[in-house]
Design goal:
alpha+beta, four-stranded mixed sheet, 163 residues, four-stranded antiparallel sheet, single chain, 4 helices
Length: 163
């Protein structure tokens, strides 16, 4: 088992969490898929880098892994395989339907502040109180999901740029 993390915005992370599907912005590319970091691999993982995104989706990868040097670009990578192109590419290609389980979602303090839209009705009252209630509700949803460890599909359908 390998820990795999994907850094993105809070809104995109919640969309992936709720749908259990990741849709890349450019599925037609030969290296399209879910990009991220292998948490225990120091060649790709950097704590300061991971703090720039608003959210970090945590995955458990139980399938096969292929490793290539960075000068050897991927050409039509196989689905259901974690591709680790040292030192910069770590991704799961489109078409993947197995081996990728979502185990958690961590939202940075900046992510809560910058990417959590306050509903229009909150402007009549305290936006801070409304944001806190939303935060509690989302945290409960995240905890419930983490217990289930759902499988995530990497779709070949085009997603919005925010995913």
């Amino acid at each position: 088992m390998i820990e795999f993390a994907h850094i993105t915005s809070v809104s995109s992370a919640l969309k992936i969490l709720r749908s259990k599907v990741y849709r890349p912005a450019q599925p037609q590319r030969s290296d399209a898929g879910l990009y991220g970091l292998i948490a225990n691999d120091r060649s790709t993982y950097s704590e300061p880098t991971s703090e720039y995104g608003g959210a970090r989706l945590h995955f458990e990868w139980t399938g096969p892994v292929t490793t290539r040097p960075d000068w050897e670009p991927p050409r039509n990578p196989s689905p259901n395989m974690l591709n680790h192109h040292l030192p910069f590419r770590v991704f799961v290609p489109i078409g993947t339907t197995r081996h990728l389980r979502l185990t958690g979602l961590e939202i940075t303090p900046g992510g809560w502040a910058n990417d959590l839209a306050v509903p229009w009705h909150c402007t009549m009252f305290s936006a801070w109180d409304c944001r806190q209630k939303m935060k509690i509700k989302i945290q409960a949803e995240i905890e419930k999901m983490a217990e289930m460890k759902p499988n995530v599909i990497v779709s070949s359908e085009r997603g919005r740029r925010t995913e």
